[in-house]
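Input (structure):
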């Protein structure tokens, strides 16, 4: 390959046709659907997606040299190539009511892209992301402000693992393909405030809750003051946030 991959963007190209086909099957593309591929690279997954009966395919790519390759290699009237940064892309700008996202996310920026997905959740009922396996496990099973932020609005499902040998260059980690399915949840409306609340709650997370939250709130919600933040369940985070919100609006 004459193109030199750029380390600053964490580029690792998936080259296994069998895995690319399996990923496309997992996405279950319906006739006429609008798909957005993040970080298409040289178009390996793009070409497989175009074998389906999708209606429109947006390609979001930050590397101008990759865009040149895509413009040369991909000749399909359904494709729209966008030179953009997926970490802060405004998906409402596409003027589409329902988008299905897919991407082999660069390790360096995966968390930021996932966070931006949540901020654009009204337009994204489904996303299918390949990310570092360790990151996937933390999102699904771990406790961090980001995992709770994501789980509030999306159900996560681990679909499959992908060994490093199927990439160029080979990463030092195993990857995972994860499904994000939007929840029917609308009580949290100010996502920025909710994110800030979670970040504050997870700061100094080894401290017991009684040192971080007024005991009145904890007693009202029947949450032990001796618990630490990582011992809380999703429903506890939501109850605490909504309780604080209601109190601040009085």
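Output (sequence):
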């Amino acid at each position: 390959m004459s193109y030199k991959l750029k380390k600053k963007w964490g580029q690792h190209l998936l080259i296994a046709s069998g895995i690319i086909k399996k990923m496309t099957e997992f996405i279950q593309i319906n006739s006429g659907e609008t798909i957005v591929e993040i970080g298409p690279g040289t178009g390996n997954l793009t070409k497989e997606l175009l074998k389906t009966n999708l209606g429109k395919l947006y390609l979001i790519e930050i590397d101008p040299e990759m865009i040149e390759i895509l413009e040369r290699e991909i000749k399909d009237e359904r494709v729209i190539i966008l030179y953009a940064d997926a970490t802060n892309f405004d998906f409402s700008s596409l003027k589409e009511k329902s988008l299905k996202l897919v991407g082999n996310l660069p390790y360096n920026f995966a968390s930021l892209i996932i966070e931006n997905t949540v901020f654009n959740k009204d337009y994204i009922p489904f996303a299918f992301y390949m990310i570092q396996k360790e990151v996937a496990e933390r999102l699904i099973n771990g406790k961090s402000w980001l995992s709770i932020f994501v789980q509030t609005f999306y159900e996560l499902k681990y679909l499959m693992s992908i060994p490093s040998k199927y990439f160029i260059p080979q990463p030092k980690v195993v990857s995972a393909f994860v499904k994000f399915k939007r929840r029917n949840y609308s009580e949290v409306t100010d996502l920025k405030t909710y994110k800030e609340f979670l970040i504050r709650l997870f700061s100094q997370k080894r401290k017991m809750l009684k040192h971080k939250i007024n005991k009145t709130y904890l007693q009202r919600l029947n949450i032990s003051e001796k618990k630490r933040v990582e011992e809380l369940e999703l429903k506890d985070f939501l109850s605490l946030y909504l309780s604080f919100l209601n109190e601040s609006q009085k």
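Notes: Residues 234-248 form the longest helix (15 residues). Residues 145 and 202 are 6 Å apart (CA to CA).
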